[in-house]
From TrEMBL:
Organism for this UniProt entry: Polaribacter butkevichii
The name this protein goes by in its record: ABC transporter ATP-binding protein
Phylogenetic lineage: Bacteria, Pseudomonadati, Bacteroidota, Flavobacteriia, Flavobacteriales
Source organism, top-level taxon: Bacteria
Domain ABC transporter per the UniProt entry, residue ranges: 2-235
Statement: the UniProt record of this protein carries the keyword Transport: yes
PANTHER family: SPERMIDINE/PUTRESCINE IMPORT ATP-BINDING PROTEIN POTA, SPERMIDINE_PUTRESCINE IMPORT ATP-BINDING PROTEIN POTA
Gene Ontology molecular-function annotations: ATP binding; ATP hydrolysis activity
Keywords: ATP-binding, Nucleotide-binding, Transport
Xref: InterPro entries: AAA+_ATPase (IPR003593), ABC_SmlMolc_Importer (IPR050093), ABC_transporter-like_ATP-bd (IPR003439), ABC_transporter-like_CS (IPR017871), P-loop_NTPase (IPR027417)
Length: 307
């Protein structure tokens, strides 16, 4: 189990990046970390892996304390694997060889089987013999994940793991990888901007704002009861409306057009989203965004209902 005990960290004096961060994670659990760019997601992963020296607090994995480079000369904690945004692969050898480098040379048959298994997880079997230098950014990212899994870690730290992968591949890869991790009971912490990583695959979600953890809960709870616009906006376009002198946060799917209502609005723009349209409208001089099956002409008068 991971215990992050009230840690603080800054790269420079007077600029705290992680301010009193505190949370736990059980073996096999998946945690997503979200927050605006520069809020400290990558720094948190580095701190957990032992790549920085904390100003305050302690981190434990089970009974072992994780130390930074001052006390632990070989960077990184041995039971963890960290896939950073720059993947650090060996460019002049093949995809298979990159994975095998991390497996035992003394058991070539097992090593081959394990490599095949991991190639399937990252959907790169067809590229087994391709040199890494000839891969795209997204393919390199997948090889880096496979390499991190070669010697099964107890905790996998992933920084924007699908950032360079196209949507088509991303969804099936995500399903593959996270079910593989669950099957092997490998805990995972993912720094991400992608709500799908959090909503569909994480057991827990942490949200960072102004260098502090402002949410730590099940993703569904945070999504359904966002405390503030910052939180809701990580998931979707969000409307912050003043209704009867009270501020309300509504996602676009929580507003719909009805035949009659006292809530009058005027359509301004329609944006095609594939299976629906996102309508921008004026509601009492406030902008509202909501989903609708068809597009609306500019200046169409509409009646709204808030769900
Ligand atoms: N090596 C460093 N030295 C000094 N400051 C740094 C260093 N690395 C990051 N920072 C600063 O620390 C803050 C947090 O950076 P970090 O990379 O952790 O953010 P992030 O949430 O992962 O961002 P993104 O979503 O854009 O990847 C930023 O203000 C960044 O400029």
């Amino acid at each position: 189990m991971l215990k992050v005990e009230t840690i603080s960290f800054s790269y420079r004096k007077n600029k705290t990046i992680l301010n009193d961060f505190k949370f736990t994670l059980q073996q096999g659990e998946h945690l997503c970390v979200m927050g605006e760019s520069g809020c400290g997601k990558s720094t948190l992963l580095k701190a957990i892996y032992g790549l920085v020296d904390l100003n305050k607090g302690k981190i434990f994995w089970k009974e072992d304390q994780i130390f930074g480079p001052e006390k632990h000369l070989v960077p990184g904690f041995e039971n963890f694997k960290y896939v950073a945004q720059d993947f650090d692969l060996m460019p002049y050898i093949s995809v298979s060889e990159n994975i095998k480098k991390f497996l035992s040379r003394f058991y070539p048959e097992e090593s081959e089987l394990r490599t095949q298994e991991l190639l399937e997880v990252i959907q790169m079997t067809a590229f087994a013999n391709t040199k890494v230098k000839n891969l795209s950014g997204g393919q390199k990212q997948r090889v880096a994940i496979a390499r991190a899994l070669a010697k099964e870690p107890q905790l996998l730290l992933l920084d924007e793991p699908f950032g360079q992968i196209d949507n088509f591949k991303k969804n099936s890869l995500r399903r593959n990888l996270f079910s593989y991790l669950k099957e092997k009971n490998i805990a995972c912490i993912i720094a991400t901007h992608d709500k799908n990583d959090a909503l569909s695959f994480a057991d827990k979600l942490i949200i960072i704002k102004d260098n502090k953890i402002i949410e730590n809960n099940a993703p569904k709870e945070i999504y359904n009861n966002p405390k503030e616009k910052y939180v809701a906006a990580l998931f979707d376009d969000v409307n912050e409306l003043t209704i009867n002198n009270k501020k309300e946060l509504l996602y676009p799917h929580q507003i719909k057009i009805v035949e009659n209502s006292v809530l009058k609005a005027t359509a301004l723009n329609s944006y095609f989203k594939g299976s629906y349209w996102l309508i921008e409208a004026d509601f009492n001089e406030q902008k509202v965004f909501f989903n609708h099956m068809i597009d609306l002409e500019k200046n169409t008068e509409i009646n709204l209902q808030f769900l």
